[in-house]
Structures are given as structure tokens and as C-alpha cells.
Write a structure and sequence with these properties.
Number of strands: 9
Helix content: 10-25%
Number of domains: 2
Strand content: 35-45%
Largest sheet: 9 strands, mixed
Number of helices: 3
CATH class of the largest domain: Mainly Beta
CATH architecture of the largest domain: Sandwich
Mean pLDDT: 89
Distance between the termini: 69 Å
Structural class: alpha+beta
Shape: elongated
Radius of gyration: 20 Å
Length: about 190
Amino acid sequence: MYADEVWTGIEYQVAAHLIYAGHLAEGLALVRAVRDRYDGRRRNPWNEVECGSHYARALSSWSLLLALSGFSISAPEGRLGFAPRVSAQDFRCFFSTGTGWGSFRQRVEGKRTFSAALEVRHGKVEIRRLSLKNEPAWAGASVARFEAPGLTDRPTVRLRGEGLEVDLGRPIALAEGQKLELQLTPEARRPA
């Protein structure tokens, strides 16, 4: 009975799973197909009809934000993570936690600098660790510069799985309008 129906919510879910599995082009092609159908000329871009108008399944499109940004959170560990799958050299995205929301930005300039900024726009966000994608092979990186309200000790960086983990040493609460900014520098190679 459903063979001829198109469910955008399922399409978004499959697209997000393709992106998580490393099939970025295929995932984005699915999203493009949905957006082409709901382009504003033939169908309303703000109402992806499935079992009725404004059906909730289309909210699975939010999973694309998580898949493309690589956003992860562990409140008990005080860890936020980002592993962009698009535009990793100059990336910016929205993020949301249970207590606040804001924006994240990262810039990578070859093997010279890796900078990241987390800005809270509403509420508060508690953080102790910031996990970043290891771009490109920054395993021996150290913190060259950092700014965060109430943080005086220099954070440490270590390789964790395929990513980098910046440990602030203790939890801090970023309130509305506050930022955490840091710049990493590659470790100087020692002669063998």
C-alpha cells in the first residue's frame, strides 16, 4: 500500500546514514533530490507532505546537521565533539545541547595552524573536553593560544582514536555570549 509513496523523513535518515558511513556524495545526492521536489515552484519547501501536512517524520532532516558536522556530546564527561565531513578547512555550524546552543567554527591552514572556537548564543554549556577531527595528522599538536572565561591553566591535547581531544583540565560553564577559542600548533619534529 505504501509502494508509490515518497517519505522524505526516510530519505533524510538514509542520507544521514550514508554520510556517517563515508558516502558523502551519495548522501548529498539524496538530499538534493528531496530539495528539488520541494523547491517552492511545484511544492511548498516548508511542508514536506507524507501522511498529512507538516508531518513530523521530515524532522529527521536534523540528523543531516549531526552527520555533516560530526557533532557529538557526552554530558557526564563534559565533552563536545566536532568532526566535519564537509569544508573541514573552514567550517562553521550550529550546535545544541540540553542547556544551551551556539556556533562552532574551525579553520585548518595546512600543517601550520588549527583553530577552533565555540560560542554560546543562548543558555549555558558546560565543557571539559573538546574533541576535534584529526586534520590532517595533528597527533603531536599542542595548544599555542587559548581563551576561555575562568580558565587559567593551559589545556592539553592528546590523540584519542582518530581525533584530537583538548582537555581543559576542569569543567567550565560557558554562558550566553561567552566563547572558548584555541589555536593548535604542530609539535616540532625532533631529530632522530
